[in-house]
What we know:
Largest sheet: 6 strands, mixed
Distance between the termini: 39 Å
Strand content: 15-25%
Radius of gyration: 21 Å
Helix content: 25-40%
Structural class: alpha/beta
Shape: globular
Order of helices and strands: HEHEHEHHHEEEEHEHEHEEHHEEEH
Oligomer: single chain
Number of strands: 14
Amino acid sequence: METLSSSLCTNLAVLPRPSGPVNLRSSGSVSVLGFSLPSLKASAFPNCSRKLLIGVTKASVAVEQETRETKVALIRIGTRGSPLALAQAYETREKLMATHSELAEEGAIQIVIIKTTGDKILSQPLADIGGKGLFTKEIDEALINGDIDIAVHSMKDVPTYLPDKTILPCNLPREDVRDAFISLRAASVADLPSGSVIGTASLRRKSQILHRYPSLSVLENFRGNVQTRLRKLNEGVVQATLLALAGLKRLNMTENVTSILSIDEMLPAVAQGAIGIACRSNDDKMENYIASLNHEETRLAVVCERAFLLTLDGSCRTPIAGYACKTKDGNCLFKGLVASPDGNHVLETSRIGPYALEDMIMMGKDAGKELLSRAGPGFFG
C-alpha cells in the first residue's frame, strides 16, 4: 500500500474533515476504522484488497483537495496523519472557529499532514529507535521553517525541552487519562489465562502489567495507530491490548473497550490525554489565537508531570508514569512511578500541595529526585 500511495500523496498533504465514526464491529471482532472516507468501487480495483483500497482513498482525497485549494489559509495546522492525530487537529480547528469569527470562514484554517520519524519506522520497538521527539521532530521543523503556523501534538509525545524558536502556550481540556483494556477473550487483565500475550509498544504498560501479572507475556513491538492495533487483535496476533482511553473517546471508538483500568492499576504516561498547541516564539498573532484556547487546570497538571519527567531525564527505554490532578479540596495530588522494563522493580511516590504553578513544578521535581535517589545509579542503565 505504501508504494501505491506514495505516487498519490506527498509528505505534506491537506485533508478534508472525516465525516464521522464508522462501526464495523461484528460478533467476535472490534471496530478498526473510526472514520469514514469517500468510497471507491471495488470493481475499479479488481486486484486490490479492502485494506489497500482504504489507503488509495486517503491518498486520492488528499490530492483532490490540494489541487482545488485556492484560498490562502489564515492558519495552517501541522499534525501527524493518523486518525487520532487528525481528530485532535480538527478539535483544535473547531475551537478556533468557535472563538474567532474570522477563522470560521471556509478555508480559513488548513490541516497539513506531516509524516514523522515515529510514523516511518514501524518495524522496530520504540525503545530501539529511541531518542526524543520521534513523533514531533518533523512537525517542529515545519513550524520553524514557516511551512505551518501552529502544531498540534499529543503532549505525551512532546520532549521535555521544546525546540528553539517555538513555544507551547496552550493545552486543551484534558481527556480521561486512564488506559483501556481490550480483549476478545477476557473481561480484564486479571481474567487472562496464564501465558496470554498482551500487545503494547509502551514500556510503561509492559512493566506495570508484568509487575502485577508475571504469568502473562508482553509483545513489545506492538506498533501502529489505534486501527492497526485493533486489526492485529482481531487477527489473533495477541490476546489483549491496552490503549489510552482518551484516544478511543476522540475517535468515537469506545464500543471496543472491554474494561477500564483504574489509576491505581495502571498509572498513566506523563501528560496522557492532553493536547498541546505550539507556535513560533516570534509569532504574536498565532500565540494570541491559541492562548485563547488554553485550559489552565490542564496546563498546570502537565507542567507538574513534565517537571517530574525532566528530573528523571526519562527516555523511551525508561518505564516512567506520572499523574497530577486536582483534589476535591482544590489541592494538587501527584503520583509518580519508575520501573524496570521486566516489572521486577517498581518504585512509587506521591505528593500533595497547592494547585499553583511554582508549587506544582517543585512537587514534580522533588518526586523525581526522590525516585532517582531510591533507584540508584544502575536502575536507568
